[in-house]
Amino acid sequence: MLLLQEVLFFITENQNNKKAEFDKKIIQSNLKFYGVKTSLLRKKAQEIANDANLSQLNCQGIYEIEFILNVALAYSNKSLQEKLDFYEKSFLNVDNWAIIDGVSSSLKFNENDYLVLKNYVKKNYHSQSEFLSRSCYTFLNACSWKEKYIEEILKFIYEDAKYYVLMAEAWLLSNLYLKDHKRIIAFLETLDDSKNLKKFTLRKIYDSLQVSNKEKQSLKKYFKKDKC
């Protein structure tokens, strides 16, 4: 109860009504928004990361509390397995991309964690929960060593996913493309032209500042059916 009061006080002290309206429009969640800056939410999450009562924090239907709770756990001293066990349940109730992406950018993955992460992905990538499924791809994308496991990662890619999952898959594939052009091009060739994953991935590749104009033109010719 004391932790909840502390977090609620923090949120009300830092609320911004104009930003709250903007955030709700961009994030598209049914939660209530107070418009607190993300940098402040992260700072608060770090402050309470190892509070003994963290897992009991009731989000009260408020976006900022849900963000703080999930990101605080990412900053905590708990093992990756403990964190993923928590997220596997917590993300079932998440209705927006911002919390998933906030956690993904806060977690630290070591290569020794790959098997733990792989088991999480294998269990949840095909989940009916759109945002639990999205987390599988944003977590993989957050791994600086992901290119070492491209072949295994590609087995988790599927084209019939929901929109926010497809976008996360495309983001992951476009980053893997920067590491191994040939393998990702070969994989994109196998995708259905009538579905969105190939188109979304190509668009992200084309938008990347790390891909040369010459290379982008080459890809446009290679995938003639896609309008990017």
Task: Describe it.
By secondary structure, the protein is mostly helical. It has two domains: 1-77, no CATH class; 80-228. It is built from 13 helices and no strands. The protein has helices at 2-13, 17-27, 38-47, 63-75, 80-90, 97-104, 114-124, 130-141, 150-154, 163-179, 181-189, 196-207, 213-222. Helix 3 crosses helix 4 (63-75), helix 4 (63-75) runs parallel beside helix 6 (97-104) and helix 10 packs across helix 12. The protein is globular, with a radius of gyration of 19 Å. The N and C termini lie far apart (51 Å). The mean pLDDT is 93.
Features:
228 residues; mainly alpha; 13 helices; globular
In short:
The chain is mainly alpha-helical and 228 residues long. The protein contains 13 helices and no strands.
Approximately how much beta-strand content do the residues carry?
under 5%
Please report the total strand number as a whole number. 0
Stretches where pLDDT falls below 50 for ≥5 residues? Answer: none
Helix-and-strand structural type: mainly alpha
Helix count from the secondary structure assignment: 13
Radius of gyration: 19 Å
User: From N to C, what is the helix and strand string?
Assistant: HHHHHHHHHHHHH
Helix content: 55-70%
> Multimeric state of these chains?
single chain
Q: What's the end-to-end separation, in Å?
A: 51 Å
Give the averaged pLDDT, no decimals: 93
- How is the main sheet built? none
**Global morphology:** globular
What count of domains describes the coordinates? Answer: 2
